[in-house]
Specification:
By secondary structure, the protein is α/β, with parallel strands linked by helices. It contains 12 helices and 20 strands. Helix 5 crosses helix 6. It is globular. Bound molecules: alpha-D-glucopyranose (GLC) and calcium ion. Alpha-D-glucopyranose (GLC) binds at residues 58, 61, 98, 154, 206-207, 245, 321-322.
Amino acid sequence: MDWLKDACFYEIYPQSFKDSNGDGIGDFNGIIEKLDYIKELGCNGIWMNPCFDSPFKDAGYDVRNYKLVAERYGTNDDLKRLFEEAHKRGIKILLDLVPGHTSDEHEWFKDSKKAEPGEFKDRYIWTDFWYGEARNLRGIAGMADRNGIYVVNFFASQPALNYGFLNKTEKWQSSVDSPEAIATADAMCDVMKFWLSMGADGFRVDMADSLVKFDDDDKSATCKVWKRIIAEVKKEYPEARLVSEWNRPRQSLPAGFDMDFMLNWTGNGYDLLLRDTGSEKPSPIFKKDSKRDINDFLNDYLPQYEDTRESGRYCLITGNHDTDRVSYYLDEDERKIAFAFLLTMPGAPFIYYGDEIGMRYMKELPSKEGGYTRTGSRTPMQWDDSEGAGFSTANKDSFYLPIDADLKGKNAKEQMAKEGSLYNTVKEVIALRKSNEALLDNGNLDFVLRQPGRREFAFKRGDLLIVVNPSEKACKVDSSDVKISSLPEKKYSIGDVKTDKGVIEMGPVSFGVFVIS
Ligand code: GLC
Ligand code: CA
C-alpha cells in the first residue's frame, strides 16, 4: 500500500518547535523529544521546513549548502537519528527542497559571479549586459565582477538557478535542453538522493513551478524538467513521496508530484474558506456571521480536485509558515469545525504546528530572517504555561522569537488535559479519519447539499454523510436535502447535533458525521 493512503501530516518549523540545548532555538534533538506528541495527535508524517546550512536571510529558504544541516539544528548525524526515531514510531519525514534558487553565499554562486568563467558560470541566470532590464525578470546589478545581472527567484539574496528557457531569444539564455540546464537538474537529483539515502522519506518542494522562466505560462517546460528529475529519483527510491508548492494540481500531478497543496492566495477558494485576507472586514465561510456559502470554496477546489483525483492528491492545510494563523480570523469553536472539515476531505491533510492548540498570529512582531508579516505565524511552540512555555530553558531574551505572553488555554499541556478542547477535537477527527476507509485519501466525494445562499452544507464520502453548519443560527437538514432515503445514524459530532423525526437538527457552529444505511 502507498504510505500516503492514510497519511496525515504535521508541519514543523524547526527553529520554533523545541530547543533541547538551551540556546533558544529549536533543534533536531528537540523534535525527537516531541515525536511522541505528534504520534499521539495521530499524525504519521512530518513536513519540516528547511534545515540546511544558510545565512538565514529567508529563514533557511536561502540554502548555502544542500548537503549540510545548519549548525543551529544539530549535525547530519542528528538528522539521521531523527529519521530513525520517527520511523520507529511509524512517522515519515519530508524535508523541504528548494530547487529554484540558492543563497548568494552558495559555493556555486560564488564561482558563477567571478569575472573569469569558472565551473559554475552557467548554474544561474546571468545576462550579458550589466545595466538595464532582463526582460520581465527581476535582476540585480552591481554585485559581481562578472559582466552581467543575475536574475532572482524571490529575495535579492536568492539568485535563480538556471533550468534554461523554453524559447531562447537572447544570447545570454540557455535552452532547456542545454548541458548547463541539464546539469542543474542533475545537481538537484543528486541532493534528493543524498537525503533519501540518509533516511528521508521525500520532499516538500518549494516554489516547484518556478524552474523555467517566462514563455512557460502553461508550465510545460517546468513539468518536463520535473518528470525527468522525479523519474530519476524514483528509479532508486520508489517509495519517496513529493508534495509541491504549486497549487495547480492539473500541472503538478501529471508532472510526477504525488501531492500538491491548495495555497492561500488572496481571494481564492481556500482563502475564502478560512481567512478572507483581501477584505477589510474578513468574513470567511467558517465565520459564524459570514454571508458566504461553501460554493465560494467549492467553485475553485472541486473542478481541480475532480480533474486530478486519479493522478494524485490535492491537499488541504490548516495553515503554514507563510500564512496568517487561522486563529486570527476564526474563534475556537469555528476552528473546531473548520479543522474537522479539512480532516474529513480527500488528499492528505497538513496541520501547521500549534494550530491544534490554538496558537495566535502575532501580527505586530518585527520581521525575523526575512519573515515580514509571516513572522507572527512562526513563534515558539507553546508546550505548557511555564516561563519559557516548555520550548526552551534559555533566557527568554535569547529565544528565536518571543513566546506569546498569553499562554492560558493555548498550550499543549492544558489543551491535552481538557475534554472537548481544540486539540482533543483535532485528535478525535484524525482518529475518525484513520478508522474509516471512506475518509482516507481520494475515496469518493459527493457534495449533496451546496445550495447557493444556504450556509449549511453536506457531503458524502462512501457510506458516511458529513453535515456542517458554520452559521451562528441553528438549522434543519432533511433526508431529501442530502439525497438519502432513511435517516442516518449519528457517528460523531461537534456542537449540538440531533436527529429527530426524519430531520437532522444542526445547532449553531456544528459538525456531524452520520452512517448511511
Ligand atoms: C516559498 C516558501 C517561503 C519562501 C519562498 C522562497 O513560498 O514557503 O517561505 O520565502 O518560497 O523560497
Ligand atoms: Ca537549540
